[in-house]
Design goal:
Largest sheet: 6 strands, antiparallel, barrel
Number of strands: 15
Radius of gyration: 21 Å
Helix content: 10-25%
Shape: elongated
Strand content: 25-35%
Structural class: alpha+beta
Order of helices and strands: EHHEEEEEHHHEEEEEEEEEH
Number of helices: 6
Length: 295
């Protein structure tokens, strides 16, 4: 699996909207997220660097430690999707976009590597044994921001965000961010109204039409030289699996990078936030129920 993250009766009052209408309404409220992160290692009050051990690293494709040396280009980079939910540019996305390290196994691997290195060094310096079980590995977000739909990929168009609410429960794969500008882009933006979000499982029925828009495959799906800037990809489909405690399944094709995409029903209500799918098969994707975004 790839991770892409009081209203009863309201649905009956809302009018159906076509996919074309939904795209026109929400295309400027959906943004491409860009992030960088790394891992910070400590072992109690032991100065790891005095033993030649770096304290800020990532793991490369060969499973080897790679010191980041304070350089962003050496860090883990990723893209995703988010969408505005307020006039002051708050953004809903997935928890695994805000804190990707929670969904990786790298922290455990790094911990094992450092414990092994300290154990080897302890053969000559027995006092190091006391620090082996104190090894701690923390994920660190070095940068998280977004590029609005229709803008060029550039540092000038990259808007920084900071985390407002992002927990540790991987089942609740949603997070709330805040744009540092606290302003929506200078275009017509209809932010997604969470007050109208679907909160009842009775409204998440197999066969219900849904529509999602985001940035699957990130930059690789974009013509970066286009005069129109980056462009959303959108797809309609249907709910294909009944909701569980946290999520539901749907068949609109998508891919990694679409994590955090809004999922609407035919009345324009947020019904979920796309967060997972199978990389070897299209049409088997999942969304976190909108109630968690609202909460």
């Amino acid at each position: 699996v790839i991770y892409f993250k009081g209203c009863e009766g309201l649905s009956n009052k809302l009018k159906d909207q076509t996919d074309e209408q939904l795209y026109a309404k929400y295309k400027n409220s959906t943004v491409l997220m860009v992030g960088y992160y790394y891992y910070k290692i400590s072992a109690g009050n032991l100065n790891l660097e005095s033993f030649g051990l770096p304290t800020e690293v990532v793991i490369n494709e060969q499973g080897k430690l790679k010191p980041i040396e304070g350089r962003r280009e050496m860090m883990n980079s990723y893209t995703g999707t988010g969408f505005f939910v307020s006039e002051d540019a708050k953004i809903i996305t997935n928890l695994h976009i805000a804190k990707p390290w929670l969904f990786e196994e790298d922290a455990a691997k790094i911990s094992d590597i450092y414990k092994q290195m300290l154990a080897v060094a302890a053969a000559e310096l027995p006092q190091l044994n006391a620090f082996i079980q104190q090894v701690k590995v923390d994920g660190v977000s070095a940068y998280l921001g977004f590029i609005p739909n229709g803008e060029y990929v550039s540092n000038e168009n990259l808007v920084t965000c900071h985390e407002l609410v992002a927990g540790e429960d991987k089942n609740v794969d949603v997070a709330l961010l805040q744009s540092v500008t606290k302003k929506l882009p200078n275009v017509e933006v209809a932010y997604v109204d969470l007050e109208n979000a679907v909160v009842s499982d009775e409204d998440i029925r197999v066969g219900t039409h849904i529509y999602t828009l985001g940035f699957p495959m990130g930059f690789s799906a974009q013509d970066l030289k286009s005069s129109k800037g980056i462009q959303l990809l959108a797809r309609g489909g249907n709910i294909t699996q009944e909701s569980t405690d946290y999520s539901f399944g749907f068949d609109a094709a998508s891919y990694g990078g679409a994590s955090g995409s809004p999922i609407f029903n035919s009345k324009g209500q947020l019904i979920g936030v796309l967060n997972a799918g199978f990389n070897k098969s299209q049409g088997f994707n999942y969304g976190v129920k909108a109630i968690y975004a609202k909460k």
